[in-house]
């Protein structure tokens, strides 16, 4: 008799076409969204898993079971590293855990952040000159008088520019009081006097001190750099994160200490701001097809570049000034001789001239400027907070930059740089073996300050001047000396403390079992560790797909609820309209169950039919768009997509779930109207229609 | 044994808070194969009597016995089964199911009965379609038929389960006199050949006079 039931069911669907159409559209849209959304969220989830596990976390993370906070490798919401304490003995943990057959490797890690202040342009030049003098005094054959002369000229060049700035009121001065400002300006005039430079070589320390301490504060100093970094066993890191790739410079040679900056950070934070803005404009114009004339944002960038030409100008090597002036004169077709004014003209950027100027900037101008605040090969001072809250500083060499293939520019994957484990431990305040040795050596050098003072006197050959150096400065010199030596200390200690460690599994589908096994080993061997999966270890970032899924399902569920209400409403209306017919069926012997079945089939037909259409549409989109992939808009998207495009595929299991949910909801929606229908008395059949 | 027996049946309806008596103690019995008319003016209680016999309503007092079963003793399921297996209904406004064609409408009660094979079902439906003279209309929807044709379909539907009793509530009221007469003729023919008990209500004298027995109602009581 089923076909009669179907006939009756279909009838109602066609009887209320408009209502059916609305319910149908909602069901089509809902199932389309559910199927498609799920497929996309799944693709994002697996992309994110890849991005996170292949850039930071590995499959699992372990950390101290005494941790005060849950581990979040991307840091807390406020950007601070999570307070998870540390595990004292890496070797013991490693040996114990590697006994489990599914663990492929363990990489010790620790996250922290450091500040680096390269100083302002004048500071940097003063420091450069001071180093040259020192090296010359130590008879370094690589330092020539010519080089010192050139550095002096550069300093003079910077001071002249500063003077111009002060005169034209365009210097970005940060001195607090008027008297300080006036005194600094007086000192600037002293430094600019020809007589000041006549005996410079003989009295360089006091002259440099004057410039560095009194004049340099006239220049606004905003070049503080902030690095999130991960201290790790770099060899192991490189070997276990296959998407890791050196971009500039080189990998830290085995046994050496060093720092690798994420290329994204290098290109966005370390790069000169003028150049960075040029890059941003280029990306917007070329990749995103934006028009400068229509974009307020781009106009702001151009304006900022024009206003901050000094940022570029002051990194210019004075000796290149004539060449660059000539080049710009020719390019801009101007008779102007003042390089600043020429640069001013150059950065008057419009729609038509942008691409040409961008090319000229990088091809013809960039070689004369210092485009990055840190050059590859520089030894930089890093200051970080130790585990007990003191500040700790080391000098460390920047060997190069790196990224993770297929999400190169992602700010998330690029949120940290890499440092060798020992430098990390020093910055974090662990007493490493080499530090201990170093401390002993220093102590045996019987009073660091006296020694360095003697040294300095020997270097200067002028007792009086040397005595004028403050104690603090002398301490700084000796500290630098220590740090320099220290940077060269070999990496020998792999068996010491670590904050957290990444675990790679041979079979990552066995994650739950492996977690249980590790917990068991931890209990037996008393390792004092806690184990979490990558999702939990990545904190908020890892929970994002769950949030996405909840939002998607919430939205779809609301749609289905609306559909269910409309189904119920339409069935109730139909019940009212069909009272006589239902009464007739009852009168001629149809049991209540028969009516119930009609209602059930009617909603089942509606919901299956329309959700099937929605699913087919979604599958069509999945097979066409999903196969080609959605292009990642922006760098964050690349991280979530784990590549330049997001490819997604049908998730059959979830399609089934969507179907079951739809059927369940329509089943619920049927109950009340069906109950009402079953209550209709067969007496209704006797009531005449007319 | 009487297929239908009413013993001092009373039926009150509630109109708001007022109790309105529709039947004030009606008793009669119908012999098997009888062709009986229940006559009377509007409001005399004709339809109430038919509803009680048709097991779609229950008496306030007294006994309604259908095929030896006291209807007041039966639950909903048993009453439904009684309607399906023992009774056939013909309604004043035909009450066909609009989406089903002639054949499906007639087959409908057989599908509910579930005691015939598809082949037997088809034979039975074909027989009754032919019997009511709608052989050439089997694929027509009710909306494509005239009033008389529709009532023939209803008669076939009422007869297809071979019920002991066929109830008809003013079966000719919505038909012109000629068509009405042909319907009465068909019912009489079936009654005389199959010995099916027919009981129907009417207020049409020309039809009333063709019945073998007339139960005349007035104000809820039998006149003669």
Structure summary:
By secondary structure, chain A is α+β, with helices and mostly antiparallel strands. Chain A has helices at residues 2-15, 17-57, 90-97, 121-137, 145-167, 178-192, 194-198, 204-215, 234-240, 263-270, 273-287, 296-307, 309-313, 321-332, 339-346, 354-365, 421-428, 433-444, 448-460, 463-468, 471-487, 511-525, 534-537, 539-577, 579-587, 592-628, 635-641, 652-678, and strands spanning 60-64, 103-116, 225-232, 244-249, 259-262, 379-385, 391-404, 417-420, 500-505, 529-533, 630-631, 645-646.
The global form of chain A is elongated
What is the tally of helical segments of chain B?
Answer: 7
Estimate the mean pLDDT confidence of chain B. 90
Helix/strand order of chain B, N-terminal first: EEEHEEHEHHHEHEHEE
Report the biggest beta sheet of chain B as strand number plus sense, adding barrel if it closes: 6 strands, mixed
Instruction: Please give the order of strands in the largest beta sheet of chain A.
Output: 2-3-8-5-7-6
H/I helix tally of chain A: 28
The best one-word shape of chain B is: globular
- The CATH C-level class name of chain B: Alpha Beta
| SSE class of chain A | alpha+beta
Strand portion of chain A: 5-15%
Write structural notes for this entry.
The complex is a heterodimer of chains A (690) and B (224). Chain A has 690 residues and is an alpha+beta fold. Among the domains of chain A are: 2-51 and 544-686, no CATH class; 59-108 and 495-540; 433-492, no CATH class. Chain A has helices spanning 2-15, 17-57, 90-97, 121-137, 145-167, 178-192, 194-198, 204-215, 234-240, 263-270, 273-287, 296-307, 309-313, 321-332, 339-346, 354-365, 421-428, 433-444, 448-460, 463-468, 471-487, 511-525, 534-537, 539-577, 579-587, 592-628, 635-641, 652-678; strands at 60-64, 103-116, 225-232, 244-249, 259-262, 379-385, 391-404, 417-420, 500-505, 529-533, 630-631, 645-646. Chain A has a six-stranded mixed barrel, surrounded by five helices. In chain A, strands 11-12 form a two-stranded antiparallel sheet. The radius of gyration of chain A is 36 Å and the shape is elongated. In chain B, a hairpin with a 2-residue loop joins strand 4 (61-66) and strand 5 (69-70). The mean pLDDT of chain B is 90. Chain B is built from seven helices and ten strands. In chain B, the strands form two sheets. A six-stranded mixed β-sheet of chain B has the order 6-7-8-3-9-10, sandwiched between helices. A four-stranded antiparallel β-sheet of chain B has the order 2-1-4-5. Chain B is α/β, with parallel strands linked by helices. Chain B is globular, with a radius of gyration of 17 Å. Chain B has one domain: Rossmann fold (3-Layer(aba) Sandwich).
């Amino acid at each position: 008799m089923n076909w009669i039931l179907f006939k009756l069911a279909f009838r109602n669907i066609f009887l209320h076409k408009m209502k059916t159409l609305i319910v149908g559209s909602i069901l089509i849209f809902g199932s389309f969204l559910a199927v498609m959304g799920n497929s996309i969220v799944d693709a994002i989830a697996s992309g994110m898993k890849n991005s996170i596990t292949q850039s930071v976390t590995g499959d699992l993370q372990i950390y101290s079971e005494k941790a005060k906070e849950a581990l979040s490798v991307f840091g807390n919401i406020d950007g601070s590293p999570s307070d998870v304490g540390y595990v004292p003995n890496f070797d013991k943990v490693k040996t114990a855990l590697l006994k489990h057959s599914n663990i492929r490797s363990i990489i010790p890690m620790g996250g922290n952040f450091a500040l680096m202040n390269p100083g302002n342009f004048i500071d940097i030049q003063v420091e450069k000159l001071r180093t040259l003098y020192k090296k010359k005094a130590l008879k370094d054959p690589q330092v020539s008088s010519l080089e010192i002369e050139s550095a002096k000229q550069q300093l003079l060049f910077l001071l002249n520019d500063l003077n111009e700035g002060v005169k034209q009121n365009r210097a970005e001065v940060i001195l607090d009081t008027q008297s300080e400002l006036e005194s600094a300006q007086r000192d600037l005039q002293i430094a600019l006097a020809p007589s000041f430079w006549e005996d410079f070589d003989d009295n360089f320390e006091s002259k440099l001190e004057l410039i560095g301490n009194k004049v340099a504060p006239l220049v606004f100093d905003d070049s503080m750099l902030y690095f999130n970094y991960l201290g790790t066993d770099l060899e192991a890191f490189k070997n276990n994160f296959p998407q890791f790739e050196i971009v500039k410079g080189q990998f830290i040679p085995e046994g050496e200490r060093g720092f690798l900056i994420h290329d994204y950070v290098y290109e966005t934070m370390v790069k000169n701001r003028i150049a960075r803005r040029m890059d941003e404009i280029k990306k917007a114009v070329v990749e995103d097809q934006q028009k400068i004339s229509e974009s307020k944002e781009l106009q702001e960038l151009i304006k900022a570049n024009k206003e901050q030409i000094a940022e570029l100008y002051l990194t210019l090597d004075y000796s290149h000034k004539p060449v660059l002036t000539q080049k710009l004169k020719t390019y801009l077709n101007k008779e102007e001789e003042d390089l600043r004014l020429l640069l001013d003209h150059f950065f008057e950027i419009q729609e038509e001239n942008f691409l040409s100027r961008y090319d000229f900037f990088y091809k013809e101008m960039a070689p004369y400027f210092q485009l990055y605040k840190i050059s590859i090969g520089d030894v930089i001072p890093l200051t970080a907070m130790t585990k007990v809250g003191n500040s700790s500083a080391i000098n460390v060499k920047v060997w190069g930059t790196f990224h993770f293939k297929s999400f190169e520019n992602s700010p998330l994957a690029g949120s940290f740089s890499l440092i060798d484990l020992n430098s990390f431990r020093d910055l974090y305040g662990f007493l490493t073996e080499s530090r201990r040795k170093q401390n002993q050596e220093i102590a045996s050098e019987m009073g660091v300050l006296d020694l360095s003072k003697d040294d300095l006197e020997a270097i200067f050959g002028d007792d009086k001047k040397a005595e004028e150096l403050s104690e603090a400065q002398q301490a700084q010199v000796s500290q630098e000396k220590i740090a320099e030596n220290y940077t060269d200390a070999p990496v020998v200690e792999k068996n010491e403390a670590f904050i957290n460690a990444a675990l790679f599994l041979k079979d990552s589908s066995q994650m739950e079992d492996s977690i249980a096994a590790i917990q068991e080993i931890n209990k037996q061997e008393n390792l004092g560790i806690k184990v979490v999966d990558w999702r939990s270890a990545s904190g908020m970032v890892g929970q994002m797909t769950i949030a996405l899924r909840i939002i998607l399902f919430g939205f779809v569920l609301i749609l289905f609820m609306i559909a269910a209400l409309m189904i119920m409403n339409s069935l109730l209306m139909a019940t009212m309209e069909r009272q006589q017919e239902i009464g007739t069926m009852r009168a001629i012997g149809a049991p209540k169950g028969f009516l119930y079945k009609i209602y059930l089939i009617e909603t089942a037909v509606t919901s299956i039919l329309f959700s099937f259409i929605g699913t087919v549409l979604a599958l069509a989109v999945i097979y066409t768009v999903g196969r080609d992939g959605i292009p990642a808009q922006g760098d964050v998207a690349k991280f979530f997509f784990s590549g330049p495009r997001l490819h997604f595929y049908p998730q059959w299991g979830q399609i089934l779930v969507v179907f079951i949910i739809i059927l369940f909801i329509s089943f619920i929606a049927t109950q009340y109207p069906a109950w009402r229908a079953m209550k209709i008395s067969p007496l209704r059949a006797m009531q005449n229609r007319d | 044994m009487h297929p239908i027996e009413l013993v001092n049946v009373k039926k009150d309806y509630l109109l708001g808070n007022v109790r309105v008596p529709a039947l004030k103690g009606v008793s009669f019995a119908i012999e098997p194969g009888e062709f009986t008319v229940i006559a009377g003016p509007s409001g005399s209680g004709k339809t109430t009597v038919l509803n009680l016999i048709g097991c779609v309503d229950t008496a306030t007092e007294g006994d309604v016995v259908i095929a030896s079963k006291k209807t007041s003793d039966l639950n909903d399921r048993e009453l439904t089964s009684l309607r399906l297996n023992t009774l056939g209904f013909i309604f004043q406004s035909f009450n066909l199911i609009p989406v089903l064609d002639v054949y499906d409408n007639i087959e409908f009660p057989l599908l509910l009965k579930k005691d015939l094979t598809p082949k037997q079902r088809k034979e039975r439906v074909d027989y009754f379609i032919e019997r009511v003279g709608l052989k050439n209309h089997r694929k027509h929807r009710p909306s494509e038929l005239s009033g008389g044709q529709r009532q023939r379909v209803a008669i076939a539907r009422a007869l297809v389960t071979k019920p002991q009793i066929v109830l008809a509530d003013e079966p000719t009221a919505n038909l012109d006199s000629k068509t009405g007469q042909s319907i009465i003729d068909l019912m009489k023919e079936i009654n005389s050949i199959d010995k099916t008990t027919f009981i129907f209500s009417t207020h049409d004298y020309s039809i009333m006079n063709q019945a073998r027995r007339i139960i005349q109602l007035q104000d809820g009581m039998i006149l003669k």
